[in-house]
């Protein structure tokens, strides 16, 4: 086991959430597995798209699915948590099956210059997709403490790992790792051996945030105070029921809108919903609740957007 500097979120061996919101752990899994779950469709039809051509100094954001987004920016192409697998689990043999195809086929991606990997859960860290993109494009990879070795084993010649609030100047613009409230692990014996987080990228004329996977907490307001306001924030809205099991690790739609306000985001994009059935809520429940939450908290529809897989927006 690797030794890390002790901090408010690491005891030297394992990481934890300083808020104390560290989930119910494995003890709650049997009860969770008995929880009734809404029935999702086997497949949601969609038309896969080619990535749009980027124009001038604009940045284009394309939803590929779940937490995988393509950012086509004036300084290069970024992909977040690239997952193109049909199942999110060991060897793609077990685990939730994809119900929405990737909005852009992996083979149709433009050359990727930077991979941002928020943590090592299967629905965010797809080794086959990472290996393919790394072999084709040789991008810089920026990730959290404890995950650079995984990326190097997949062929990454340049993999950088960061701690919370640490900034890297290894790419064309600064990239900062920000806190999230979550956990990590790909098996029974490696829980919290690596860190989790999100990223802030200082694009030309656009401060962009990818929140990673997170429950709601005071860290959103702290990020907004220290690094905001933001021109773009990609915020998770799904995989939240039942709350007694998911509250610490996944925001629900109401919390996502509050996070949008805490971050002082000009435009937020919803992610982490409607692709893999990870939890008990119905497939469209996150979007419906997000609409009500926007009204309740006085946020305009165009300020917190929901993109279907393959849909793109151009940042002004």
Describe the structure.
The chain is of the alpha/beta class and 316 residues long. It contains seven helices and 14 strands. It has helices at 29-33, 127-137, 148-153, 219-227, 243-246, 253-263, 285-296; strands at residues 59-65, 68-73, 76-80, 114-117, 140-144, 159-162, 167-168, 175-178, 198-203, 206-210, 232-236, 268-271, 304-305, 312-315. Strands 6-5-4-3-2-1-14 form a seven-stranded mixed β-sheet. A seven-stranded mixed β-sheet has the order 7-8-9-10-11-12-13, with helices on one face. The longest helix has 12 residues, at 285-296. The chain is globular and about 50 Å long.
Give a nutshell description of this structure:
By secondary structure, this protein is α/β, with parallel strands linked by helices. The chain contains seven helices and 14 strands.
Q: What keywords describe this structure?
A:
seven-stranded mixed sheet; single chain; alpha/beta; 14 strands; 316 residues
- The rounded distance between the terminal residues' Cα atoms is 46 Å
Overall spatial form: globular
Low-confidence stretches: none
Strand order of the largest sheet: 6-5-4-3-2-1-14
Based on helices, strands and strand pairing, what is the structural class?
A: alpha/beta
Topology readout:
Elements: H1 29-33, E1 59-65, E2 68-73, E3 76-80, E4 114-117, H2 127-137, E5 140-144, H3 148-153, E6 159-162, E7 167-168, E8 175-178, E9 198-203, E10 206-210, H4 219-227, E11 232-236, H5 243-246, H6 253-263, E12 268-271, H7 285-296, E13 304-305, E14 312-315
Parallel strand pairs: 3-4, 4-5, 5-6, 10-11, 11-12, 12-13
Antiparallel strand pairs: 1-2, 1-14, 2-3, 7-8, 8-9, 9-10
């Amino acid at each position: 086991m690797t030794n890390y500097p002790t901090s408010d979120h690491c005891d030297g061996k394992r990481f934890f959430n300083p808020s104390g919101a560290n989930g119910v752990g494995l003890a709650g899994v049997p009860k969770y597995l008995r929880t009734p779950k809404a029935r999702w469709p086997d497949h949601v039809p969609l038309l896969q798209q080619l990535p749009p051509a980027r124009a001038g100094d604009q940045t284009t954001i394309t939803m590929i699915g779940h937490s995988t987004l393509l950012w086509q920016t004036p300084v290069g192409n970024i992909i977040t948590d690239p997952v193109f697998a049909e199942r999110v689990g060991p060897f793609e043999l077990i685990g939730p099956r994809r119900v929405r195809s990737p909005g852009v086929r992996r083979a149709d991606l433009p050359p990727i210059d930077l991979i941002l990997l928020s943590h090592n859960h299967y629905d965010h860290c797809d080794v086959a997709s990472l290996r393919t993109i790394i072999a084709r494009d040789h991008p810089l990879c920026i990730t959290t403490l404890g995950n650079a070795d995984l990326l190097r084993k997949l062929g990454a010649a340049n993999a950088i790992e960061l701690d919370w609030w640490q900034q890297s100047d290894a790419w064309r613009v600064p990239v900062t790792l920000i806190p999230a409230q979550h956990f990590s692990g790909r098996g029974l014996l490696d829980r919290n051996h690596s860190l989790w987080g999100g990223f802030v990228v200082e694009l030309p004329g656009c401060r962009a945030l990818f929140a990673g996977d997170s429950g709601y907490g005071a860290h959103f307001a702290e990020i907004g105070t220290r690094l905001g306001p933001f021109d773009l924030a990609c915020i998770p809205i799904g995989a939240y029921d039942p709350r007694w099991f998911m509250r610490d690790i996944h925001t629900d739609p109401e919390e996502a809108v509050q996070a949008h306000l805490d971050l002082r985001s000009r435009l937020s994009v919803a992610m982490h919903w409607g692709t893999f059935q990870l939890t008990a809520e119905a497939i469209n429940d996150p979007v419906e609740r997000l609409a009500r939450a926007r009204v309740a908290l006085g946020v305009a529809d165009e300020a917190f957007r929901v993109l279907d897989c393959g849909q793109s927006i151009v940042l002004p």
